[in-house]
């Protein structure tokens, strides 16, 4: 068999003794791996000891050494280790008192793998995570991690969940700006609210998330533009520029065309989150109907049918799958076939529910 110009032997084509030789070598390989794991683990007490004695630089160097040793066998663990170490070595913590009515803080619940994404979007997000995990390497070259991210695209396809996943991967608190509290009808009050939000975020590493971003970053000179909105947009640009790299700003909009062009240029990453393809709908449906969520039942075949419904976003796909699971509990699955065939907008009451 030939792949990319290179001949690769299948098991059937290998010499008769090859399989036996490989099997004979397996115990030796296992021994070497166990020894390597033991050597790696021996670094952990040294790292903890450095933390106890507040030798922060030494702890970071030891952590980098451990990450380097395991990056070939456990690359995800190595990257996570570097991220956590880098954050742990930053002494600053967010103040316990939040700007009243303007920001909510939560602990991230989702990793990146939990979000249904195109390969391109996932790759771009991994680039962001990698830069922050290697911030000390970048500093040696006079660089800082890029930290201003704009997600745009139709509603219901995971922009908020993706922002939360970035916070989880980076090991940072997740700050969500309350849109209703931010906007104020009094002249100049919205700008003052922006001051409070960004001043709070600058106090320590965090992910700051602003949804419905077009509401405060509208294009100047547009038909919707009024004097106050123009002032808010100008103020917002200044605040974005003042953010340190330790604050990851993530904004989301489903009205990218309404954003001010100068605001768009302030972002390091502008990432489109498109409407889902059939493959993405199928991936989401399979995840929502996996056996762990349907104990004693197998609904996996329904994932294909739901993917074929062409529901307009992943939120509707998720909700439809949950309707199937709910029907399984409350109606013994009597309405599942109908639910798996009904398009959005078609509703009906299930007997006994």
UniProtKB/TrEMBL annotation:
<dbReference type="Pfam" id="PF00004">
    <property type="entry name" value="AAA"/>
</dbReference>
<comment type="similarity">
    <text>Belongs to the AAA ATPase family.</text>
</comment>
<dbReference type="InterPro" id="IPR027417">
    <property type="entry name" value="P-loop_NTPase"/>
</dbReference>
<keyword id="KW-0547">Nucleotide-binding</keyword>
<feature type="region of interest" description="Disordered">
    <location>
        <begin position="1"/>
        <end position="25"/>
    </location>
</feature>
<feature type="compositionally biased region" description="Low complexity">
    <location>
        <begin position="12"/>
        <end position="25"/>
    </location>
</feature>
<dbReference type="InterPro" id="IPR003593">
    <property type="entry name" value="AAA+_ATPase"/>
</dbReference>
<keyword id="KW-0067">ATP-binding</keyword>
<protein>
    <recommendedName>
        <fullName>AAA+ ATPase domain-containing protein</fullName>
    </recommendedName>
</protein>
<dbReference type="GO" id="GO:0016887">
    <property type="term" value="F:ATP hydrolysis activity"/>
</dbReference>
<dbReference type="InterPro" id="IPR050168">
    <property type="entry name" value="AAA_ATPase_domain"/>
</dbReference>
<dbReference type="InterPro" id="IPR003959">
    <property type="entry name" value="ATPase_AAA_core"/>
</dbReference>
<dbReference type="GO" id="GO:0005524">
    <property type="term" value="F:ATP binding"/>
</dbReference>
<dbReference type="InterPro" id="IPR003960">
    <property type="entry name" value="ATPase_AAA_CS"/>
</dbReference>
<feature type="domain" description="AAA+ ATPase">
    <location>
        <begin position="145"/>
        <end position="277"/>
    </location>
</feature>
């Amino acid at each position: 068999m030939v792949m990319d110009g290179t001949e690769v032997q299948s098991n059937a084509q290998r010499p008769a003794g090859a399989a036996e030789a490989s099997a004979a070598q397996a115990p030796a390989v296992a021994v070497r791996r166990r020894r390597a794991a033991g050597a790696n683990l021996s670094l952990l007490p040294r790292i903890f000891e450095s933390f106890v004695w507040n030798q922060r630089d030494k702890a970071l160097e030891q952590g980098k050494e451990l990450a380097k040793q395991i990056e070939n066998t456990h690359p995800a663990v190595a990257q996570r280790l570097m991220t956590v170490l880098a954050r742990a070595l930053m002494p600053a913590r967010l103040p316990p008192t939040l700007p009243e009515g303007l920001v909510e803080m939560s602990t991230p619940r989702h990793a990146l793998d939990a979000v249904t994404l195109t390969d391109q979007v996932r790759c771009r997000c991994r680039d962001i995570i990698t830069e922050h995990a290697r911030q000390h390497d970048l500093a040696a070259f006079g660089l800082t991690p890029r930290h201003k991210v704009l997600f745009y695209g139709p509603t219901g396809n995971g922009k908020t969940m993706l922002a939360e996943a970035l916070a989880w991967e980076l090991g940072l608190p997740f700050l969500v700006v309350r849109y209703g509290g931010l906007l104020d009808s009094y002249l100049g009050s919205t700008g003052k609210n922006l001051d409070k939000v960004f001043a709070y975020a600058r106090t320590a590493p965090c992910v700051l998330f602003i949804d419905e971003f077009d509401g405060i970053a509208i294009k100047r000179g547009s038909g919707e533009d009024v004097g106050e909105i123009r002032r808010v947009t100008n103020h917002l640009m200044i605040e974005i520029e003042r953010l340190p790299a330790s604050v990851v700003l993530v904004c989301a909009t489903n009205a990218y065309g309404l954003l001010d062009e100068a605001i768009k240029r302030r972002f390091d990453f502008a990432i489109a989150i498109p409407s889902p393809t059939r493959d993405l709908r199928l991936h989401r449906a399979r995840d929502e109907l996996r056996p762990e969520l349907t104990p004693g039942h197998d609904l996996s075949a329904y994932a294909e049918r739901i993917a074929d419904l062409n529901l307009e976003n992943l939120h509707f796909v998720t909700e439809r799958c949950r309707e199937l699971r709910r029907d399984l509990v409350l109606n013994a699955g009597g309405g599942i076939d109908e639910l798996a065939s009904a398009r959005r907008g078609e509703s009906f009451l299930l007997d006994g529910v």
